[in-house]
Design goal:
elongated, Ribosomal Protein S5, domain 2, 5 helices, 11 strands, alpha/beta, disordered N terminus, about 250 residues
C-alpha cells in the first residue's frame, strides 16, 4: 500500500479516538502525478541565441540540446572555453522549469548541451530563456523555428527576466536571418537611431568658444518583428507556431 494511504488512514483513526467515537476505516487513495520517461534518446533540438561578445559586437551562437535515458546528469560540450558559472546556474534553472512544464522526471534522464560557435556569448544569465525553451522542446521531441530568437533570463517560476543590450542582440538576430525576436515583457522596443553632430559657438572676451553635442533621432524599427513575452510558455508558443507564408530560415 502507498505510504500516503497509510498516513491518511492513521490520522483519521487518531481523530476518531480523540473524539470518543467509533471509527470505521475507509481507505482514501491519493494518486501521484504521472511521471513521463524517455526510453530512447530524443532528437537533438537546436536554438540560436543572440548575444553581445566581449568586444561589444552582436553575435549569434548555436545551442543544441539532447535528452538521453540516464541518471540525472547534465553534460556540456563547449569548444575552446571554460564553462561559465552563470551559464551553469541558468542550465540548472532551465532543467527545473522544463521538468515542471513537461512532467518528465529528469533524475532519470541525462541532458546534453552542445555549443559549437561563439560559445562565450552565452556567458551570463541572458541565455536562460533560450536554454529552457530548447530543453522543453528536446523533451517533447518538437523542432523549433530557426527564424525565431529570444533573449532573457529564466526564473524558477517560468517567468522571463530583463536583460541588457537588447538593441544589439536584435540587430544580431536580424543579421543572422531571424524574422521574429522575442524580448522580456516590459523591455523597450529597440529602434534604429541616427546621430546629428551639432556645433554651438559663442564669443567671450574676444575668444570664440565652441561646444560639440550629438542629438539622437529615432529613424524606425530594426526591420525585424519584436514581440514581448512574459513566460517561457508564451515564448515557446512563438517558437512552435507556423511561420508566415514566404518566410522561414535564411
Amino acid at each position: 500500500m502507498d505510504l500516503r494511504v497509510i498516513v491518511v488512514a492513521a490520522v483519521l483513526v487518531l481523530v476518531a479516538f480523540a473524539a470518543g467515537g467509533q471509527f470505521n476505516p475507509r481507505v482514501i487513495t491519493v494518486q501521484a502525478p504521472p511521471t513521463r520517461i524517455l526510453t530512447n534518446p530524443s532528437p537533438s533540438t537546436t536554438i540560436f541565441v543572440p548575444a553581445v561578445d566581449q568586444d561589444g559586437q552582436g553575435v549569434v551562437t548555436e545551442v543544441q540540446v539532447q535528452v538521453l535515458p540516464g541518471s540525472g546528469r547534465t553534460l556540456a560540450s563547449i569548444e575552446d572555453i571554460l564553462f561559465f558559472v552563470d551559464t551553469q546556474a541558468s542550465i540548472r534553472t532551465a532543467r527545473e522549469v522544463a521538468s515542471t512544464a513537461t512532467g518528465f522526471d529528469l533524475s532519470l534522464h541525462d541532458l546534453v548541451y552542445t555549443v559549437t560557435a561563439n560559445a562565450s556569448a552565452i556567458e551570463g544569465p541572458s541565455a536562460g530563456a533560450a536554454l529552457t525553451i530548447a530543453t522543453i522542446a528536446a523533451l517533447e521531441g518538437k523542432p523549433l523555428r530557426e527564424d525565431v530568437m529570444i533573449t532573457g533570463t529564466i526564473e524558477p517560476d517560468g517567468s522571463i527576466g530583463q536583460v541588457g543590450e537588447v538593441e544589439r542582440k536584435a540587430m544580431a538576430a536580424k543579421a543572422a536571418g531571424a524574422a521574429l525576436f522575442l524580448i522580456p515583457a516590459g523591455s523597450d522596443i529597440p529602434e534604429i537611431y541616427t546621430y546629428e553632430r551639432l556645433r554651438t559657438c559663442q564669443p567671450l572676451q574676444g575668444v570664440q568658444f565652441c561646444e560639440i553635442s550629438y542629438v539622437r533621432t529615432p529613424t524606425g524599427n530594426l526591420g525585424i518583428e519584436v514581440r514581448e513575452v512574459g513566460t517561457v510558455q508564451e515564448a515557446l508558443a512563438s517558437f512552435l507556431e507556423e511561420p508566415p507564408v514566404g518566410e522561414g530560415p535564411a
